[in-house]
């Protein structure tokens, strides 16, 4: 258990810890000379239990609240210290507000210096404390009158703390390791040492970690947990790590940095939170106000963007986005405390909802609905509300970082569906995925109704027409599913519904019967559109329209503008290409020209057409057949069956 103090300056926090542990907290020379705590102090002692308890002694002076916040972020239990002679003071209220904002719900109040006052004064201050706590989450917190000078009440307080330690169990050790660094120093003969509170997970000697936000890789050479040498440490402990890395120097590490398992490394500058403005604030908070943001042990400046209005009244709650002036690390559920621009007073705080907040559309109702869903405590609580609004699904890797939950620990809801894409898996709500499929099929039906003369769009055109908002890898996975189930069919590059066919009119059938022999008889050098039109004495536009229609239904292939080859002739040319590669290992334009006995320009046009339809791939001045080409596989299959290729287009 980690116990932290809180309270006004000179109310006896350090003296109380000395009475409880027998150890001196203020170890710096300037602290002993001035008689006040300036920075964080750390003590480790056994209160009577088998394990050591860690104590964090925080400064009480208003000028050192930023140091208090750096230490308070990782404590399990707070000792709110209030002197009987002074009673409740300004920093008592501010420290209490910070404790409540940090979500710390285990606490005792130590009513110190009772040796200086009489019984009526103790009773009076007790009433002040009860009134102070009454409206907040720590109402009813036990109050222990003590004297650090003569030892009154110390044993009773110690026994109560031992009992609390037995009930404190960390539920964070199933996540990836993360430690908030609050000190970094160099030890002769050992190198760089960092200390902090382990927020989650476990770490062992020899582990590879990442220093965030820099992303530098380091290795754990040795560690101490709760001030004792150990081979491993876990969440909820004070940990000192001796780390090593390439050219690593202590000057490169600052308070507020993190040591993380590599899976968690993803620094951010935009964080969505649920925010509460303290009721004690004298004025409302404006949108885009400059603030100091305390996250973990880090203090970074930035601005707060209110997502539901331009102003927030004292005591109000709102969703907000923090825009940081320096990169930070956070996961869902982390607590943040905001102070004003001059760092003179605490404004409020809240809880991290999304550490990877989007830069755009943050005010839209769909985004606010996502933030409301993210208000749950666990991933299992949140997914049922989050999945239906995720039109592009949820990326498991991002969720793992966002919630610090390794995937093997997830319990997915029944309505969750994992879709595998070329860029990895995505999680979808089953109803959402079914809706996307229905939308795709319905859009294709509309396309057929508006373009009856076309067999269908290609896949990219259909995406633009049906689901432009869907990420391309997800669209391809959806399309593959509809093709596999037969709800959509493909004819070459064209997609269409199974029952849809492009039909030629009687006039078009008559024109086709006249021009088709001209295309086939010319073999590798078919006539151009204008030549066909002149030969048949038909308008060029009529010929061009019919040839394009025939190409859409797969009977022709357009090599360049106004030059169409019968599909059977293209297959013969593909035969030539495959045969050339089998003999020479590569395809060269000059050899292909000699093989088909056409000019260089036409040969290059045909080879570039083969590149476009995926038969070949160009490497400099040479080409090779693509191993994944469907056309190549089809031609090879025919060659394997017959051991030869037919000599005429009609034979294919």
TrEMBL record:
Q: Name one Pfam family in it.
A: WHD_2nd_SelB
Classification via PROSITE patterns = G_TR_1 (PS00301), G_TR_2 (PS51722)
Q: Which domain of life is it from?
A: Bacteria
* One GO-annotated biological process of the protein: selenocysteine incorporation
Predominant cellular place of this UniProt entry's protein: cytoplasm
Q: Any one cellular component term from GO for this entry?
A: cytoplasm
Molecular function GO labels: GTP binding; GTPase activity; RNA binding; translation elongation factor activity
Q: Which InterPro entries match?
A: Beta-barrel_SelB, EF-Tu_GTPase, EFTu-like_2, Elong_fac_SelB-wing-hlx_typ-2, G_TR_CS, P-loop_NTPase, SelB_WHD4, T_Tr_GTP-bd_dom
Show where the Tr-type G domain sits: 1-172
Keywords for the protein's UniProt record, in alphabetical order: Cytoplasm, Elongation factor, GTP-binding, Nucleotide-binding, Protein biosynthesis
Note the coiled coil stretches, chain numbering: none
Q: Where in the cell is it found?
A: Cytoplasm
**PANTHER family (alphabetical):** ELONGATION FACTOR TU-RELATED (PTHR43721), GTP-BINDING PROTEIN 1 (PTHR43721:SF9)
Q: What does this protein do?
A: Translation factor necessary for the incorporation of selenocysteine into proteins. It probably replaces EF-Tu for the insertion of selenocysteine directed by the UGA codon. SelB binds GTP and GDP.
Q: What is this protein called?
A: Selenocysteine-specific elongation factor
Q: Which organism is it from?
A: Stutzerimonas stutzeri
């Amino acid at each position: 258990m980690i116990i932290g103090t809180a309270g006004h300056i000179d109310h006896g926090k350090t003296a109380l810890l000395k009475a409880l542990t027998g150890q001196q907290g203020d170890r710096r020379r300037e602290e002993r000379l001035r008689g006040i705590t300036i920075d964080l102090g750390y003590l480790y002692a056994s209160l009577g239990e088998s394990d050591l308890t860690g104590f964090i002694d925080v400064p009480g002076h208003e000028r050192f609240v930023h140091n208090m916040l750096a230490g308070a972020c990782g404590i399990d239990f707070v000792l709110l210290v209030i002197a009987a002679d002074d009673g409740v003071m300004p920093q008592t209220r501010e420290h209490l507000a910070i404790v409540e904002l940090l979500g710390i719900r285990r606490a005792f109040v130590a009513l110190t210096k009772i040796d200086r006052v009489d019984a009526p004064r103790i009773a009076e201050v007790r009433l002040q404390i009860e009134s102070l706590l009454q409206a907040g989450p720590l109402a009813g917190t036990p109050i222990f009158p003590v004297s650090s000078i003569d030892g009154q009440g110390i044993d009773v307080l110690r026994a109560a703390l031992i009992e609390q330690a037995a009930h404190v169990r960390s539920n964070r050790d199933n996540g990836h390791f993360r430690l908030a660094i609050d000190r970094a120093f160099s030890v002769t003969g050992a190198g760089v040492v960092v200390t902090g509170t382990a927020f989650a997970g476990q770490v062992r000697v020899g582990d590879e970690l990442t220093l965030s936000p820099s992303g530098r890789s380091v290795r754990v050479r040795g560690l101490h947990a709760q001030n004792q040498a150990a081979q491993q440490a876990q969440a909820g402990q004070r940990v000192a790590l001796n780390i090593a890395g390439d050219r690593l120097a202590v000057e490169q590490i600052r308070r507020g940095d993190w040591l993380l398992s590599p899976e968690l490394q993803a620094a951010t500058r935009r964080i969505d939170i649920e925010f509460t403005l303290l009721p004690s604030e004298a004025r409302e908070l404006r949108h885009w106000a400059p603030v100091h943001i305390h996250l973990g042990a880090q203090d970074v400046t930035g601005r707060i963007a209110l997502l539901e209005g331009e102003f927030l009244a004292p005591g109000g709650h709102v969703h907000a986005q923090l825009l940081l002036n320096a990169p930070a690390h956070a996961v869902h559920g982390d607590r943040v405390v905001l102070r004003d621009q001059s760092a003179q007073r605490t404004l409020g705080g809240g809880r991290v909802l999304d550490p990877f907040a989007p830069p755009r559309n943050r005010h839209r109702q769909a985004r606010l609905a996502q933030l409301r869903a993210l208000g749950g405590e666990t991933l299992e609580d949140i997914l049922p509300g989050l999945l239906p609004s995720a039109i592009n699904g949820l990326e498991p890797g991002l969720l793992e970082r966002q919630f610090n939950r390794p995937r093997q620990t997830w319990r997915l809801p029944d309505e969750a569906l994992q879709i595998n894409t070329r860029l990895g898996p995505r999680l979808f709500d089953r109803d959402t995925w079914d809706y996307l499929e229905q939308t795709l099929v319905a859009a294709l039906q509309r396309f057929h109704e508006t373009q009856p003369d076309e067999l269908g769009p290609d896949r990219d055109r259909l995406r633009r027409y049906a689901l432009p908002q869907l990420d391309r890898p997800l669209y391809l996975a959806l399309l593959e599913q509809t093709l596999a189930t037969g709800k959509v069919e493909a004819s070459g590059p064209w997609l269409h519904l199974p029952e849809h066919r492009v039909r030629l009119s009687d006039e078009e059938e008559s024109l086709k019967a006249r021009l088709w022999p001209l295309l086939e008889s010319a073999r590798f050098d078919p006539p151009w559109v204008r030549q066909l039109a002149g030969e048949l004495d038909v308008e060029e536009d009529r010929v061009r329209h019919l040839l394009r229609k025939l190409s859409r239904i797969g009977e022709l292939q357009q090599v360049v503008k106004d030059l169409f080859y019968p599909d059977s002739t293209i297959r013969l040319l593909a035969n030539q290409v495959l045969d050339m590669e089998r003999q020479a290992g590569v395809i060269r334009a000059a050899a292909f020209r000699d093989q088909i006995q056409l000019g260089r320009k036409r040969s290059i046009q045909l080879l570039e057409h083969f590149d476009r339809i995926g038969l070949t791939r160009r490497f400099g001045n040479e080409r090779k057949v693509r191993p994944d080409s469907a056309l190549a596989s089809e031609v090879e299959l025919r060659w394997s069956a017959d051991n030869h290729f037919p000599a005429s287009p009609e034979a294919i």
